[in-house]
Amino acid sequence: MSYLKERILEEGVIYPGNVLKIDSFLNHQIDPGVMKEIEKEFYDHFSDRRITKIMTVEASGIAPAIMVAAHFDVPMLFAKKKKPSTLKAEEAYTAEVYSYTKQTTSTVMVPKDYLNKEDAVLIIDDFLANGEASMGLVQIVRDAGAKVAGIGICVEKSFQPGRERLEKEGLDVYSIVRIESIDSKNQEIKFKEGH
Ligand code: 5GP
């Protein structure tokens, strides 16, 4: 069994509403050993493509994204959920993203200066649920005239429609772990084969 599946089984807590909490090692307290494994797996899968930039959304995508960026030796760009005072609205690419876990919509943004039509972008995130965060980033990349090289997800909840939505857009999704079902009552997790 893979390192990530083992940690999910040992430390994961399932909340009502199909939310899996694994913040003891992935997205709040972060285990560098797990990050190193994640980085290597994404690099092995995507290293045959041209990649000029790694993108994610703050905050929980930043840790895996910076690790992957270091391996590819390219910059990591994250979309912010609040407009910094130094960024004028017309100088940013923006997208509306509905947060599944927080049940709020935010306008995510990146400065236009940091994306251009020569970029080939690998999108990285901690979870894939309904595909909102990834679709927001895809829209930003496309608005800049750049190309999405692929989407790397640490934990995909395959019973939610995110992957289907992204694949309909012709995008290549690689998930380290795919979850077929979670049950908050029995605290049971079933994995799905493949990536
Ligand atoms: P999506 O945008 O695909 O609907 O959801 C992905 C985003 O929501 C991720 O960036 C992640 O932060 C958050 N998310 C979705 N499902 C879960 C979950 O089960 N557990 C945690 N911790 N975060 C989730």
Strand content: 25-35%
Which sheet architecture does the biggest sheet show? Answer: 6 strands, mixed
Number of strands: 10
Q: What structural class do you assign from the helix and strand content? A: alpha/beta
Compute the average pLDDT: 97
Q: Major sheet: order of its strands?
A: 4-3-7-8-9-10
> In percent, how helical is the residue content?
25-40%
Shape: globular
Distance between the termini: 14 Å
Q: What string, H for helix and E for strand, traces the elements in order? A: HEEHEHEEEEHEHEE
The number of domains is 1
CATH architecture label: 3-Layer(aba) Sandwich
Subunit structure: Homodimer.
Catalytic activity: XMP + diphosphate = xanthine + 5-phospho-alpha-D-ribose 1-diphosphate
EC number: 2.4.2.22
Main location: cytoplasm
Give the tags:
single chain; 195 residues; alpha/beta; Rossmann fold; six-stranded mixed sheet; two-stranded antiparallel ribbon; 10 strands; globular; binds guanosine-5'-monophosphate
